[in-house]
Amino acid sequence: MLKQFKEIMISAGRLMTNVQDAAVHRKEGHFNFVTDMDLKVQEYLRGQLLSLLPGSTLFAEEQENQQLSDQPTWVVDPIDGTVNYMRGRRCSSVSVALLKNRKPQLAAVYDPYSGELFTAQAGAGCWCNDMPVHVSDMPFERALVTFGTSPYEPDLAKQGMQAAYALLLAAGDLRRSGSAAIDLAWVACGRSELFFEMMLAPWDYAAGALLVQEAGGHILQPLNDAFDFGQSACILASNPHCLDGALSIIRQVANGQLEV
Q1: What angle do CA 221, 223, 228 make, to 5 degrees?
Q2: Over the stretch 162-182, which tens digit does the pLDDT of each residue have?
Q3: Residue 214: which pLDDT band, with cuts at 50, 70 and 90?
Q4: In terms of residue numbers, what domain contains 68?
Q5: Residue 26: pLDDT band by 50, 70, 90 thresholds?
Q6: Same-domain check for residues 223 and 121
Q7: Which pLDDT belongs to residue 28?
């Protein structure tokens, strides 16, 4: 199944990059868009993934979703980084995770521009183009921090920028790619130490969460009592050395205890 899954991901990425001027439509919320290619890639993935695992269902960005259940479910972001895709910035990805009993068992993030396919299986490790990868061992004070800005939620966007500034002062430096799935994959392979965003949807983080876990890192919903893949939430991913410092900053900002 893993071999076929990889082939589907690569084909979806090729489909995504075949057209760069797909029609753009506005979605609800500030600076929120969908292109015809998002819809085309999602429909391709729907057909391929449901055929790959009969009896499974799709939980995806560009559709109305029912509440997440325990049955096998593909969590799909057809183009993570749609604005990058629209603007030709070449930093977008296809992100898919297979959940069983609401927990990820199989995941892939494919960057068709670099040709890098990140994959993970629960309990079996994480790979980039079939080479095993692991989170870095960089300490917090030298951490490279990646983050998202939550532009659809003004109050959370402000908190996110406060947290980013606090992390800039406490850690090393900041980067903003525009694709949460790629940022999570890069934490998994040690290109950065931290990723956070104050609000992400399940399709933004489900695949990356398994990549980070299987690469030896930590993935949390730091403002929730328990991790729930069925809801949008604040997300923090980290190598083991940077977790406590980043977690403290995000929780203080969210609770109004840290003004920067």
Answers
A1: 40
A2: 999 999 999 999 999 999 999
A3: very high
A4: 2-132
A5: low
A6: no
A7: 54
Among 18-22, 53-57, 133-137, 162-166, whose mean pLDDT is lowest? 18-22
Residue with tokens 């009969």: 54
- Structural domain count of the chain: 2
DSSP string, 173-223: EEE--S-HHHHHHHHHTTS-SEEEEEEE-HHHHHHHHHHHHHTT-EEE-TT
Integer-rounded Cα radius of gyration of the chain: 17
Q: Which of 101, 132, 163 is the last residue of a domain?
A: 132
**Claim to verify: residue 148 and residue 26 sit in the same structural domain:** no
For residues 219 and 214, what is the distance between their CA atoms, to the nearest angstrom? 10
Question: Which of 130, 134, 74 minimizes the C-alpha distance to 107?
Answer: 74
Block residue for tokens 């995770």: 97
Pair of tokens at residue 164: 């980013």
How many Å apart are CA 105 and CA 83, to the nearest integer?
29
The reply to whether 76 falls in a domain is yes
Check whether residue 190 and residue 220 sit in a common domain: yes
For the chain, give the number of residues: 260
| Nearest in space to 134 (alpha carbons), one of 146, 148, 118 | 118
The whole-angstrom separation of Cα 259 and Cα 140 is 20
Global pTM value: 0.94
260 lies in a domain?
no
Q: Is the pLDDT of residue 135 over 90?
A: yes
Question: Cα separation of 180 and 99, whole Å?
Answer: 19
Among the listed residues 10, 32, 251, the one whose alpha carbon sits nearest the alpha carbon of residue 151: 32
Q: Are residues 78 and 50 in the same domain?
A: yes
- CATH number, position 155: 3.40.190.80
Q: Are 109 and 65 in contact (CB under 8 A)?
A: no
